[in-house]
Amino acid sequence: MKSLGRKPDGARLERITSSPLWTGERFQNRHPILAGLRDPNAPMPTLAQFLWGGERRVPQGPLPSTSPLDAWNRRPDSGLRATWLGHSTVLIEIDGIRVLTDPVWGRRASPSQLAGPKRFQPVPVPLGAMPPIDLVVVSHDHYDHLDYPTIRELAKRDVPFVTSLGVGAHLEAWGVRHERIVELDWWDSHESPDTGLTVTAAPSQHFSGRGLKGRNTTLWSSFVLRSERHAVFFSGDTGLTTEYRTIGERLGPFDLVMLEVGAWLPAWGDIHLGPENALEALALLGGGAFLPVHWGTFALAMHAWDEPAEALLKLAPKAGVHLLMPRLGEAVEPAYAEEAKPWWRAVDTRALKPEPDAAEAVTVPKAMSWPID
Predict the structure, then answer these.
(1) pLDDT digit string (tens) for 157-170?
(2) What three-state secondary structure class fits 128?
(3) Which helix (H) or strand (E) is 231 found in, with range?
(4) Which of 76, 148, 229, 370 could make a disulfide contact with 81, Cβ separation 3.0–4.6 Å?
(5) How far apart are CA 93 and CA 72, in angstroms?
């Protein structure tokens, strides 16, 4: 199955095995993964409970969303703007450069478009309607972050990619040219040609793998984007780790911090943050406007779909956090963003509308015009 990707080999494998994070068989985290970090007695759910357990895991109707196409035709006044497109997919406009994180337009977070976690609704903007992208950042190779049909379409645009060690094997197998792929180990940096943008891979605490075998043979990372005027942190997938303090000291301060807040379970320990740990991670990083990601798109855990948002709305003000909670497709500038409002409570009680299939989700319009490059 092509969507499984390809194993690293050749020069790519040689670079992997020279990483200080490589154990001889796989990558490992700097710190042990502690199961039940918050609750040592938390039981691991059965497969049946995970597939069908929990309450309100899927919204009863479509989430409020808006088209950012008009906003994207105007440069951000502050030079920094972010548009959350669902899950961990964000279009970041940083001093004239457009960066897309973990792009997923596919119907399901799965190797098959017939089974697996189904997205709640289509992305607010068809992939073909996206403006020219200067760079794509992929944090790791899990299906809800690295999506086969989406990468196939982006490969046709010849967009450059920056990703973690080993992930380039998947990209190349799906049509991305070798010379358009940069793979980074933790603390490695890449200067994007002719943009003034530096991308640095930083530690995270997670794992990798797209099949039942070969787990942790590619690396997972957080990423820092730094231009002359602004800096952005993107967590990818991660649990809480003391590495965040080091990241803040070495690569901060940050104007915008994007941290995962959804799809966590006590029994999983510290491989996902959740709302409380995300606020702790933000503090370790040194603060910054906080845009939560990794929620509101797929049912990947047993908690209610809106629990991360409700928890943050309650906890963030007490912590003095500048919380950004834009609707899907709403372009926001951290410097001017309004106070977070619970727009998700307005979810319609009607049944979700039928989605287009994966092919429709990446259909390219015949005519689009983007005057700002």
Answers:
(1) 999 999 999 999 99
(2) helix
(3) strand 231-234
(4) 76
(5) 9
DSSP tag of 74: S
Torsion angle, alpha carbons of 50, 148, 96, 330, to 10: -40
Classify the phi-psi angles of 274: left when phi > 0, otherwise alpha if psi is within -120 to 50, otherwise beta. Answer: left
Bridge partner list, 331: 83
Domains in the chain, please, with CATH? 2-63+137-322 (3.60.15.10)
Radius of gyration of the chain (CA): 19
Cα–Cα dist 39/321, whole Å: 26
Rounded Cα distance between 42 and 265, Å, is 9
- DSSP classification of residue 362: T
Nearest Cα neighbor of 16 from 191, 140, 183 is: 183
208-243 pLDDT, tens digit per residue, is: 999 877 789 999 999 999 999 999 999 999 999 999
The span from the CA of 272 to the CA of 260, in Å, is 7
95: left (phi over 0), alpha (psi -120 to 50) or beta: left
Tell me the CB-side half-sphere exposure of residue 132, using CA atoms within 13 A. 9
pLDDT digits (tens, 9 = 90+) for 242-276: 999 999 999 999 999 999 999 887 777 688 999 99
What the block records as the tokens of 41 is 């007695």
Phi, psi of 197 (to 5 degrees): -105, 130
The shares of helix, strand and coil residues in the chain, as percent rounded to the nearest 5, are 25, 20, 60
Q: Are 64 and 347 in contact (CB under 8 A)?
A: yes
Please, where are the H alpha helices in the chain?
Answer: 10-17, 47-52, 69-72, 148-156, 168-173, 243-251, 274-285, 307-318, 358-361
Pairing of strands 135-138, 97-101: parallel
Distance of CA 249 to the CA centre of its chain: 23
What's the pTM value of the predicted model, to 2 decimals?
0.91
- For residue 76, which amino acid is it? P
- Longest Cα–Cα distance of the chain, Å, equals 57
